[in-house]
Amino acid sequence: MTFNSLNLIDPILRSLKEEGYTTPTEIQEQAIPIALQGKDLLGCAQTGTGKTAAFALPILQHLAANSSNDPNRKIRSLIVTPTRELAIQIDESFQNYGRYTGLTTAVVYGGVNQKRQVKQLKRGVDILTATPGRLLDLMNQGFISLAHIEIFVLDEADRMLDMGFIHDVKKMLRALPNKRQTLFFSATMPKEIIQLSN
Ligand code: AMP
Fold first, then answer.
1. Ligand 1 atom 11: the closest Cα is on which residue?
2. How many CB atoms neighbour CB 184 within 10 A?
3. Cβ count within 10 A of residue 46
4. 3-state secondary structure of 42
5. C-beta of residue 152 within 8 angstroms of C-beta of residue 131
6. Which residues pair with 154 in a beta bridge?
7. Beta bridge partners of 129
8. What are phi and psi of 83, to 5 degrees?
9. How far is the C-alpha of 105 from the C-alpha of 194, rounded, in Å?
10. What are the φ/ψ torsions at residue 130 (nearest 5 degrees)?
11. Measured from the CB, is residue 47 less than 6 Å from ligand 1?
């Protein structure tokens, strides 16, 4: 299988070629067609398997279909991940894979002053990657609204629960529109993850 047979748009295929990707990994081959159809997905995959592109490529493709550069546009996709390092990596992946789509990204995480992050948010962001604590903090301050999220990703869901983020995750879920696409990724599938995804 090649990326060409996954029905991805040219701006994405171009960046993948530049990244040197020739063949989709197993999780990409399985997840991309489902996500491109707008379906919800529960993916079992660890870091290092290519799972970031498995959710990033369908998101970029969906959002690129009607993008805008209005600074007041709403955030349309949210990726929540447990650690700052993962958040930064995911945001970098979106920037790499999306470099020909014209879509913009931002990343927010705790442990640093929020000023730069707020400034970035004010420029207009299509895709936001966040860790739970800082996300809820910026939501409470009115800098982030989840009211227009079309695609929500919960990354490393099992680790998120292990780190005690279950209440934060539930709060986030309540702030999301009911009509949305949800992609869950977890390295393991304990019953808490199945319950949460149900
Ligand atoms: P991830 O599991 O998303 O953290 O990806 C692990 C590493 O694999 C990253 O360095 C990616 O750049 C790389 N990668 C992801 N998909 C592919 C692919 N289809 N071909 C080659 N490398 C890839």
1. 50
2. 22
3. 12
4. strand
5. no
6. 80, 184
7. 79, 107
8. -125, 160
9. 30
10. -150, 155
11. yes
User: What are the φ and ψ backbone dihedral angles of 76, each rounded to 5 degrees?
Assistant: -110, -15
For residue 49, the CA-to-ligand 1 centroid distance in Å is 6
Q: What atom in ligand 1 is closest to the CA of residue 51?
A: 3
Q: Where are the beta strands (DSSP E) in 60-143?
A: 77-80, 105-108, 127-130
Q: Which residue owns the Cα nearest ligand 1 atom 19? A: 24
Q: What percent of the chain lies above the pLDDT cut of 70?
A: 100
Reduced to 3 states (helix: H, G, I; strand: E, B; else coil), residue 186 is: strand
pTM over the 0.90 mark: yes
In Å, what is the CA distance from 147 to each residue of 38, 55, 141, 165, 174? Answer: 18, 21, 15, 21, 10
Q: Give helix then strand counts, H and E, for the chain.
A: 9, 6
Q: For 85-136, what is each residue's pLDDT tens digit?
A: 999 999 999 999 999 999 999 999 999 999 999 999 999 999 999 999 999 9
Which atom of ligand 1 has the smallest separation from the CA of 22?
20
Strands 181-186, 151-154: parallel, antiparallel or unpaired by DSSP?
Answer: parallel
Distance from residue 115's CA to the centre of ligand 1 (Å): 31
What gap in Å lies between CA 133 and CA 141, rounded to an integer? 13
Ligand 1 atom 16 nearest Cα: 50
